[in-house]
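RECORD TYPE: inverse folding
INPUT: structure tokens
STRUCTURE:
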């Protein structure tokens, strides 16, 4: 591949007139046609919520320092990220041109406030073929984000390693590992097989995304809200969407899937399994096709975990959502309990979540 221009922009946010905005407690509506209205009300522009944002985020978004030359061109995404100074305090948008970026990219902890931005009609593709045998499981990812306040908009991330055959050791191959706090993903796609996304640690928000995999393809100890995101399972044999790594009842980590779609082939997909002792996963208003196994959740090989798992379903739809044969400890949560999982308070969103930029 020839050189691809990567444009780095320090975003100067335009302050507009304040508008009324919601709060962390406003639940996502059951009517899917009202999602955008809910989002625009509860995740408004910077100017509308500047009094509620984390001080560091407010400084990063509202008082940027522009580079001397105004912009920079780089041969690779890695070079563009390297140009961001350590202990960065300003929002930096890396505008990726269309094309394929065959790189293994890491954003270090000392580089917060970075946005990877692609254009909706020409989404850039980040791809690499790292495996657990080469790098270790969590470090096999094509994109590793260790820093806080990260954002991705209109990007595709793939791990191009082959699908595990069940024989080769270390065949796990991550698309992304997100270990930073307060990260948002908009209209982005993630492709892999086993362990596609390590939703590792911190508060995260995914909206209008697509995630594909085979086994444990969303795993880790993050506290994440997935909104209107498609979960597509491929391959044959045992397939599991989530392996949440909760280790204690008091741990503040869990996954919530709201207005999502579960798709794929076959009839053997499980919504989750108890990889660790205290997994906590909820699906609300989610369309589950017939690919979902009637039991819903994989039965625990360790019987003691029957009492420590939290598997919740709330007003889901589709052939795969029928509850007659569900795993016996599936929680049929009520509206009061559900509101906790379907509001921004779940990820403390009012202090850090902003809409995607428009370039």
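DESIGNED SEQUENCE:
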């Amino acid at each position: 591949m020839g050189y691809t221009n990567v444009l780095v922009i320090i975003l100067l946010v335009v302050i507009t007139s304040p508008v009324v905005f919601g709060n962390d407690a406003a639940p996502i509506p059951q009517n899917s046609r009202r999602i955008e209205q809910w989002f625009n009300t509860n995740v408004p522009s910077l100017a509308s919520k500047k009094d509620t944002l984390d001080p560091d985020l407010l400084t990063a978004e509202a008082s940027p320092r522009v580079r001397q030359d105004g912009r920079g061109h780089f041969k690779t995404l890695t070079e563009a990220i390297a140009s961001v100074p350590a202990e960065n305090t300003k929002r930096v948008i890396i505008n990726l041109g269309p094309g394929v970026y065959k790189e293994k990219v890491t954003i270090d902890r000392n580089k917060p406030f970075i946005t990877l931005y692609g254009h909706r009609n020409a989404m850039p593709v980040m791809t690499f073929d790292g495996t657990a045998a080469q790098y270790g499981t969590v470090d096999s990812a094509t994109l590793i984000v260790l820093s806080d306040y990260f954002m991705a908009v209109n990007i595709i991330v793939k791990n191009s390693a082959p699908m595990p055959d069940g024989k080769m050791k270390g065949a796990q191959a991550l698309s992304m590992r997100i270990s930073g706090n307060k990260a948002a993903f908009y209209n982005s796609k993630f492709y892999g097989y086993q362990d596609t996304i390590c939703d590792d640690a911190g508060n995260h928000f995914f909206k209008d995304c697509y995630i594909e995999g085979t086994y444990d393809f969303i795993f880790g100890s993050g506290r994440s809200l997935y909104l209107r995101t498609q979960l597509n399972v491929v391959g044959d044999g045992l397939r599991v969407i989530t392996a949440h790594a909760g280790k204690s009842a008091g741990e503040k980590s869990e996954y919530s899937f709201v207005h999502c779609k579960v798709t794929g082939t076959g009839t053997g997909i499980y919504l989750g399994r108890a990889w660790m002792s205290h997994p906590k996963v909820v699906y609300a208003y989610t369309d589950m096709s017939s690919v979902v196994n009637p039991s819903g959740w994989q039965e625990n090989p360790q019987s003691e975990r029957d009492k420590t798992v939290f598997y919740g379903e709330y007003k889901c739809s589709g052939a795969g959502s029928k509850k007659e044969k569900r795993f016996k400890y599936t929680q049929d949560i009520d509206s009061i309990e559900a509101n906790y999982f379907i509001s921004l308070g779940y990820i403390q969103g009012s202090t850090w979540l902003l809409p995607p930029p428009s370039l």
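NOTES: Confidence is low (pLDDT under 50) at residues 10-22, 64-71.
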